[in-house]
Design brief:
This protein is of the alpha/beta class. The protein has 2 domains: 153 residues, Aspartate Aminotransferase, domain 1, CATH 3.90.1150.10; 229 residues, 3-Layer(aba) Sandwich (Aspartate Aminotransferase, domain 2), CATH 3.40.640. Helices cover 38% and strands 18% of the residues. The chain is built from 13 helices and 17 strands. The protein has a 7-stranded mixed beta sheet with strand order 4-12-11-10-7-5-6, sandwiched between helices. β5, α6 and β6 form a beta-alpha-beta unit. The longest helix has 25 residues. The protein is globular and about 60 Å long. The protein starts with 6 loop residues before the first helix and ends with a helix.
């Protein structure tokens, strides 16, 4: 391999489960990235809602380098100071009494689902194992989490899925009433569906789920892997709905780009995860915990969270102005800095085409399914970068319209 790997090296050396763009970024600062040729991009993708403070934020760099000179890894035979500080910070800022640390959102959701089944088993018996989830939901790529997720394409071809998993319709409480019963151990829901199309929950829907769970002695699990840690304008989205879950999962922005996940729960539920029932080799790693603590403390401030709400309004205004001129979107929706623009009927299924054109114009975006352009920029993106990126996005829209 040459000193500078190329996109062709991916095809040669890597398992083909991804199809990355031809561009290879090599440097990032704030909301901007540069590729191997030195070309600049405005980052509206944020590593799929991971880089909450953009690239190489000085607060996170300082936390990482300071900890890197102290202690990297111990294993869970021991605890460590950064992990304890992070757990305490999350407990103090949320409904939770206890925290389980792991390495990713998929791990956090796996832990949440296992905890729910174990709790139900210990308190009610083996029969109480059913899980209610929702069509088009996404909860990770472990076999358990893809089975609970409501997108069959991710579980097909891997053999029989675990039993006892059923799927209702998102924002349709009646569909849940038809599925939930006294054998249900948990309902798992995203306060806003991410991969399913950037669809916020109706408050009454989440409130109804809480009531149904209480009625049937089931646990309510909020998957906040994508919506958590400031993404929607509060530390966690549940705080905006007036609904408190029994278990909450967090990752992505939690580490600002460093791999880390967490499951939060209450003293009522946590004892079911007794010694030896679950584990994570890198969970509570000192490096990850130190970075995550710095991210949480920096993001959970009025300045950052109010700024997210302001940038949401500005982002929506720009997208609506683009749409007024080009009529390319059917609907613009989302919360905070997780925004989806659903393609208009004339451009059905062409979100990926628009994403590719946007990259050519120098702005990185995402999709949420074939029909929704997804934006998840840094929570502290400067207005100058937002304006510049939107200008580039409009150039891409203009090219898409011209191709019709």
């Amino acid at each position: 391999m040459s000193e500078h790997p190329t996109r062709a090296d991916f095809d040669h050396y890597m398992v083909p489960n991804y199809a990355p763009q031809q561009v290879i970024p090599v440097h990032g600062e704030g909301s901007r990235l540069w590729d191997q040729q030195g070309r600049e991009y405005i980052d509206f993708a944020g590593g799929i809602a991971v880089n909450g403070l953009g690239h190489c934020h000085p607060v996170l760099v300082e936390a990482l380098t300071t900890q890197a000179n102290k202690l990297w890894h111990l294993s869970n035979v021991y605890t460590n100071e950064p992990a304890l500080k992070l757990a305490r910070s999350l407990v103090e800022r949320t409904f939770a009494d206890k925290v389980y640390l792991c390495s990713s959102g998929g791990e956090a959701n796996e832990a949440a689902l296992k905890l729910a089944r174990r709790w139900a088993h210990d308190h009610h018996g083996e029969h109480k194992h059913r899980i209610v989830s929702f069509s088009q939901s996404f909860h990770g790529r472990t076999f358990f989490t893809v089975s609970v997720g409501g997108q069959p394409k991710y579980s097909q071809g891997f053999g029989p899925v675990p039993e006892g998993i059923v799927h209702g319709q998102y924002n349709n409480l009646d569909s849940v009433r038809e599925l939930i019963d006294d054998d249900t151990c948990a309902v798992m829901v995203e306060p806003m569906q991410g991969e399913g199309g950037i669809i916020p929950a109706v408050p009454e829907f989440l409130q109804g789920l809480r009531e149904l769970c209480d009625e049937h002695n089931a646990l309510l699990i909020f998957d906040e892997v994508q919506t958590g840690v400031g993404r929607t304008g509060s530390l966690y989205a549940y705080q905006q709905f007036g609904v408190t879950p029994d278990i909450l999962t967090s990752a992505k922005s939690l580490g600002g780009g460093f791999p880390v996940g967490a499951m939060l729960t209450t003293d009522r539920v946590a004892p079911a995860m007794a010694v030896g029932t679950h584990g994570s080799t890198y969970g509570g790693n000192p490096l990850a915990s130190a970075v995550a603590l710095a991210a949480v403390e920096y993001i959970d401030t009025p300045e950052v969270l109010d700024g997210v709400k302001l940038r949401h309004d500005q982002c929506r205004e720009h997208l609506e102005a683009i749409n007024h001129r080009h009529s390319v979107f059917r609907e613009i929706r989302g919360m905070g800095l997780l925004v989806g623009a659903e393609m208009a009927p004339d451009y059905e299924g062409r979100a990926k085409d628009l994403m590719a054109l946007a990259l050519e114009e120098g702005v990185m975006t995402l999709i949420a399914g074939p029909n929704v352009l997804r934006l998840a920029p840094s929570l502290v993106i400067p207005e100058e970068d937002l304006i510049k990126g939107m200008r580039r996005l409009e150039h891409a829209v203009t090219r898409l319209v011209a191709d019709e």
